[in-house]
């Protein structure tokens, strides 16, 4: 079974948006391929990043990272300067892109702009959705910054990449408080009550709220859950969701196709595009922000 597919009968919904099955010359099935092959340096890099992540992301670990990062006293920066910093970041968990993250930011934003010309807030979401990865420049290893996310404090979802083997050295795997279907949660507690593995999604979402940035709710959902593939693509965690989480899923799906399938697109002329995005930043998240 391809990693693009969830449990039997559940197909990655993001694939349904691309009936042509080829995107920018790359077949849809070729994205998010996590086959294990340590003789290939990129596959090996991706696997090791995820194994480190799945070994170390525990409830206690996430609490510690929240304690550190959610004080927003690590640095001060405009969004633009933080984005430019991403020029130096190569995401070690990504099997689909070997380009600096800022290229991916503009690829995503520009494709959204083509298909939703009237939704300027969404263009900006595309541009900044990964900027939380700046944590990697402040002492965080990539395995707690990049990659897919999943809830801690309950049984690991069945469609998490690399599966149970990658969690065999995680102490929470053996903790009866956390290793049942619901673990530390109530059934149907809702997506927003899950404690997610620490990474750039949750950090950026919280940072935008802290700095009173003016995105609509859907924009904030897109940012907060875009890496939660075991839920939005795999169909895991149904027993923890509530009815209204379907609306969050719709927003995330709308965003996800641009995040994933633009990675083989050409490299945009970033200098020429900045003036348009400068204006959007000025409108939605101006000035020097607390990070
Ligand atoms: Fe991301
Ligand atoms: Fe992304």
Descriptive account of the structure:
The longest helix is centred in the last third of the chain and has 17 residues, at 245-261. The chain starts with 12 loop residues before the first helix and ends with a strand. The chain has helices at residues 13-16, 41-56, 59-69, 79-85, 101-115, 120-128, 200-210, 217-225, 229-232, 245-261, 270-284, and strands at 22-23, 26-27, 76-77, 289-290. It contains eleven helices and four strands. It has one domain (13-290). The chain has a two-stranded antiparallel sheet with strand order 1-2. Strands 3-4 form a two-stranded antiparallel sheet. Mean pLDDT is 89; it is low at 1-20. A hairpin with a 2-residue loop joins strand 1 (22-23) and strand 2. With 291 residues, it is an all-alpha fold.
Helix content: 40-55%
- The SSE order reads HEEHHEHHHHHHHHE
Largest sheet: 2 strands, antiparallel
Distance between the termini: 41 Å
Q: Largest beta sheet: what is the strand line-up?
A: 1-2
* Class computed from helices, strands and strand pairing: mainly alpha
Number of strands: 4
Tell me the Rg in angstroms.
18 Å
Mean pLDDT: 89
């Amino acid at each position: 079974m391809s990693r693009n597919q969830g449990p039997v009968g559940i197909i990655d919904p993001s694939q349904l948006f691309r009936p042509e099955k080829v995107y920018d010359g790359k077949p849809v099935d070729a994205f998010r391929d996590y086959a294990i092959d340590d003789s290939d340096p990129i596959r090996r890099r991706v696997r090791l990043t995820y194994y480190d992540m799945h070994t170390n992301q525990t409830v206690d670990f996430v609490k510690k990272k929240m304690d550190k990062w959610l004080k927003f006293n690590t640095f001060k920066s405009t969004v633009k300067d933080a984005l430019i910093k991403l020029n130096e970041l190569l995401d070690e968990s990504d099997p689909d892109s070997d380009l600096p993250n800022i290229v991916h930011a503009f690829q995503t934003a520009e494709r959204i702009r083509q298909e939703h010309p009237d939704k300027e807030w969404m263009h900006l979401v595309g541009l900044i959705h990964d900027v939380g990865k700046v944590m990697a420049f402040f002492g965080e290893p990539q395995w707690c910054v990049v990659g897919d996310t999943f809830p801690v404090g309950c049984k690991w979802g069945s469609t998490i990449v690399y599966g149970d083997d990658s969690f065999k050295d995680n102490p929470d795997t053996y903790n009866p408080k956390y290793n049942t279907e619901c673990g530390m949660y109530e059934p149907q507690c809702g997506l927003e009550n899950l404690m997610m593995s620490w990474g750039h999604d949750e950090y950026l979402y919280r940072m935008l709220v802290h700095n009173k940035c003016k995105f609509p709710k859907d924009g904030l959902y897109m940012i907060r859950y875009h890496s939660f593939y075991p839920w939005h693509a795999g169909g895991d965690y149904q027993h923890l969701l509530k009815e209204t989480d379907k609306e969050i899923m719709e927003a995330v799906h709308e965003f996800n196709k641009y995040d994933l399938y633009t990675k083989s697109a050409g490299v945009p002329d970033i200098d020429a595009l900045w003036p348009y995005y400068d204006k959007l930043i000025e409108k939605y998240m101006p000035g020097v922000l607390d990070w």
